[in-house]
Every structure is written in structure tokens, then in C-alpha cells.
């Protein structure tokens, strides 16, 4: 298989993961490849067990559990996840809201653990979701723990809005980052998902470099301004305890 074929196959695989269940035409538009190439990639990935077609017509495609099996073995994140879980459980019990643990992958974070609340109305993101740094509590906290050079490089790119409340102005985001550095936690009101407020803090290694973030997320109607200080302190202390344990 040529390098181009491998690249195309991974583009199709990642697009299916993001859009599933997804049909051929939609997938072709998403990846910008010829329909014949996308069709060939789909059939190959199906043959080796990574994708499965739906039984309904027109055919749509989903990931199989093989993708989950391989992805769950991502070695760099396992020690952090395993170390963090007891602290995340305690945070969830204390706040009764959804708790997220995210780790960096390129210029984004990836959700690697989620502890759900018992409340029927709750925040929800699938494991493996990719999270823009500027649009999320976990991401803004991660930026706040990063070097000025890294932040400047990130702010130099286009900051795509996720909702009407996403901070896309570099100056406003810089101000938000400085505030996080002062108080130790971020507050993101509906920047990633409409109707959802989250508070986050960064997890750092021994060199004080950010290696992940933890957040408390829930409906904005329930996570109101009067809870920000208590929840913010709780998530900051949790991140500090995870960092120390690591």
C-alpha cells in the first residue's frame, strides 16, 4: 500500500469517527477525496475490521469496537488516567456534576475519561472527543499553564467558534488566560456547548508543563455564578493532587 493510500485510509477512518453514522457522499465531501478513493478505503477498512456498514439503505458507516480497543491502549495517557481516577471520583461526589479528564493531542485536547452525574439533565461528551483549547474550560486551563511562546503561537491562528459564546478574539482570550493564572481555574460559560458551563484546571508534570486538564461540567442553569468559587477551588485542588501523585 502506498503512503498516499495509507494517508487516505486514515483520513476516512477519522472522518467516520467524527461523523458516524455517515454515508459515502457526506464522507466524500468531508475528506475532499474522489468518491472512488473513499469507497475503496471504506471497503478496505471494513475488510480488516475497522468499519462496519449499517443494514439499512442507503448504507452508512460506523466504527467497530476494534478502534476502541486500540485507542484505549494509548500508553502515554494510561498512567495519568489511572492515577487521576480516585481524585476524579471524589470530585464528582463533592460536586455531583460531570467530571472530564482530557489530555493533549496536537493543538487540541482529547477526552480520555468521563464520570457522569446522576442528574437527568447533564453535560455529555463521548470519550475520544477532540476539544479546541480556546473553546473549553479544560483547554483554557491548559493554555494558562503553557509557556507564553506556546500561547502566542496558538493565538496567531484562526480561533473557530463552537457556539455564539466562544471566545474567538485573541485579546479577550489572553485576558481569560491571565485570569486563570491568577486564580488557578478557568470558567467557560457556553463556549463549547450551548447551555453548558464548565470550570477547569490543568494537570502538570514535575517541570510544571501541562500534561492534561480536569473539569466540572453541567447545565448553566445549575452551575451558576454563585458556585464558581467553590467549584473552581475544588477543581484546582483536584488537579494539584493529581499532579502531585503523578
Helix content: 40-55%
Mean pLDDT: 91
Tally of helical runs: 9
Q: What structural class do the secondary elements suggest?
A: alpha+beta
CATH class of the largest domain: Alpha Beta
What is the topology, as strand order, of the major beta sheet? 6-5-4-9-8-7
Report the uncertain regions.
none
Tell how many strands the DSSP assignment holds: 9
The total number of structural domains is 2
What characterizes the major β-sheet?
6 strands, antiparallel
Kindly report how far apart the N and C termini lie: 41 Å
What Rg is obtained from the alpha carbons, in whole angstroms? 19 Å
* CATH architectural type of the largest domain: 2-Layer Sandwich
Shape: globular
Question: Might you state the CATH topology name of the largest domain?
Answer: Beta-Lactamase
The arrangement of helices and strands along the chain is: HEHHEEHHEEEHHHEEEH
User: CATH superfamily assignment of the largest domain?
Assistant: GAF domain
Please report which band the strand proportion falls in: under 5%, 5-15%, 15-25%, 25-35%, 35-45% or over 45%.
15-25%
Amino acid at each position: 500500500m502506498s503512503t498516499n493510500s495509507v494517508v487516505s485510509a486514515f483520513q476516512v477512518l477519522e472522518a467516520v469517527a467524527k461523523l458516524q453514522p455517515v454515508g459515502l457522499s457526506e464522507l466524500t465531501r468531508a475528506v475532499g477525496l474522489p468518491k472512488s478513493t473513499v469507497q475503496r478505503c471504506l471497503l478496505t477498512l471494513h475488510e480488516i475490521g475497522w468499519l462496519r456498514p449499517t443494514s439499512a439503505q442507503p448504507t452508512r458507516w460506523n466504527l467497530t469496537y476494534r478502534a476502541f480497543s486500540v485507542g484505549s491502549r494509548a500508553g502515554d495517557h494510561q498512567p495519568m488516567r489511572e492515577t487521576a481516577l480516585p481524585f476524579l471520583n471524589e470530585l464528582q461526589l463533592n460536586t455531583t456534576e460531570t467530571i472530564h479528564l482530557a489530555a493533549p493531542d496536537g493543538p487540541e485536547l482529547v477526552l480520555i475519561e468521563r464520570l457522569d452525574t446522576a442528574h437527568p439533565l447533564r453535560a455529555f461528551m463521548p470519550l475520544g472527543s477532540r476539544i479546541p483549547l480556546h473553546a473549553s474550560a479544560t483547554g483554557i486551563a491548559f493554555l494558562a499553564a503553557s509557556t507564553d511562546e506556546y500561547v502566542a503561537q496558538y493565538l496567531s491562528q484562526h480561533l473557530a467558534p463552537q457556539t455564539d459564546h466562544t471566545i474567538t478574539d485573541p485579546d479577550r482570550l489572553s485576558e481569560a488566560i491571565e485570569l486563570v493564572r491568577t486564580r488557578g481555574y478557568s470558567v467557560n460559560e457556553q463556549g463549547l456547548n450551548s447551555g453548558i458551563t464548565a470550570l477547569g484546571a490543568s494537570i502538570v508534570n514535575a517541570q510544571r508543563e501541562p500534561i492534561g486538564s480536569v473539569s466540572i461540567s453541567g447545565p448553566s442553569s445549575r452551575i451558576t455564578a454563585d458556585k464558581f468559587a467553590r467549584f473552581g477551588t475544588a477543581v484546582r485542588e483536584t488537579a494539584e493532587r493529581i499532579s502531585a501523585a503523578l
